[in-house]
């Protein structure tokens, strides 16, 4: 398939795979939420004690956060990703470990087809923001136990000096591939207030909204991290 016709996420995984075979990796020492490793909070925002808890990541990529939660915190974690190549990479990296499962599938479709309940659901530049929020957020709420947390990071709507979206329609964005090729993608690029409106409609209540900067990307905030609770 020509690169221009490929899913941006498939093309990204394809280039990563072509760069070298995936191999077993050491479990990361911390959970990352931002574009700057080592900045921002860790796994504690998902709950004070995750041991034995059921946790779902929507858009797990190569599985680093899944491995951290399963091994360092004793959670039972499912990592879901749209791209089968990413799931193959994740299994190559961490499939030997206990308490984790990697599944290829579409976040919305898999949630709609399941009746499983979770103690925490999270997305790190994953499905939240890339799937229509009026569909995805209610589906997440249906699978989140009362009192439990949804946490997600998205690119900040003001990154690079952009203007905030004034409506609920997705905006044109791009995905940067490892070879620096840019492929278009539609993204729901909301500020914290608009995310709060959509979360409330789904029965989820915002508990925090944090902005994070990355000096490499200029003076504008780079990442928006939101946590919400199902009452």
Euclidean distance between termini CA atoms: 46 Å
Note the main sheet.
7 strands, mixed
Task: Note the overall shape.
Answer: globular
Average pLDDT metric:
93
**Low-pLDDT windows of residues:** 1-5
Domains (count): 1
**Which bin fits the share of residues in helices?**
10-25%
The side-by-side strand order for the widest beta sheet comes to 3-2-1-4-5-9-8
- Rg (CA only): 17 Å
Pattern of helices and strands: HEHEHEHEHEEEHEE
How would you characterize the overall build of this protein?
The chain has 231 residues and is an alpha/beta fold. The chain has one domain (3-17, 48-230): 3-Layer(aba) Sandwich (Rossmann fold). 25% of the residues lie in helices and 29% in strands. It contains six helices and nine strands, in the order αβαβαβαβαβββαββ. The strands form two sheets. The chain has a seven-stranded mixed β-sheet, sandwiched between helices. Strands 6-7 form a two-stranded antiparallel ribbon. Strand 2, helix 3 (84-94) and strand 3 form a beta-alpha-beta unit. Helix 1 packs across helix 3 (84-94). The longest helix has 11 residues, at 8-18. Residues 1-5 have low confidence and may be disordered.
Give the topology:
Blueprint lengths: L7 H11 L35 E5 L5 H9 L3 E6 L2 H11 L5 E5 L2 H6 L5 E7 L8 H10 L1 E12 L15 E6 L5 E6 L4 H10 L2 E10 L7 E10 L1
Parallel strand pairs: 1-2, 1-4, 2-3, 4-5
Antiparallel strand pairs: 5-9, 6-7, 8-9
Helix pairs in contact: 1-3
């Amino acid at each position: 398939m020509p690169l221009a016709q490929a899913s941006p996420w498939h093309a990204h995984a394809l280039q990563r795979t072509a760069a070298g075979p995936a191999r077993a990796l050491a479990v990361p020492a911390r959970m990352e939420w931002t574009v700057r490793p080592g900045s921002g909070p860790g796994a504690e925002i998902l709950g004070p004690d995750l041991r034995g808890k059921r946790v779902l990541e929507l858009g797990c990529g190569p599985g680093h956060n899944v491995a951290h939660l399963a091994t360092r915190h004793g959670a039972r974690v499912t990592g879901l990703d749209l791209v089968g190549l990413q799931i193959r990479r994740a299994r190559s990296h961490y499939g030997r470990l206990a308490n984790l499962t990697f599944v290829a599938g579409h976040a919305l479709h898999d949630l709609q087809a399941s009746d499983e309940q979770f103690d925490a659901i999270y997305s790190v530049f994953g499905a939240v923001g890339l799937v229509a929020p009026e569909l995805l957020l209610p589906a997440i709420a249906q699978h989140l136990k009362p009192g439990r947390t949804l946490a997600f990071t998205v690119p900040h709507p003001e990154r690079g000096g952009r203007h905030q979206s004034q409506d609920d329609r997705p905006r044109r964005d791009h995905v940067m591939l490892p070879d620096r090729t840019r492929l278009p993608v539609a993204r729901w690029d909301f500020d914290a207030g608009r995310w709060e409106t959509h979360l409330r409609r789904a029965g989820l209540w915002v508990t925090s909204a944090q902005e994070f900067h990355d000096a490499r990307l200029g003076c504008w905030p780079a990442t928006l991290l939101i946590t919400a609770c199902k009452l």
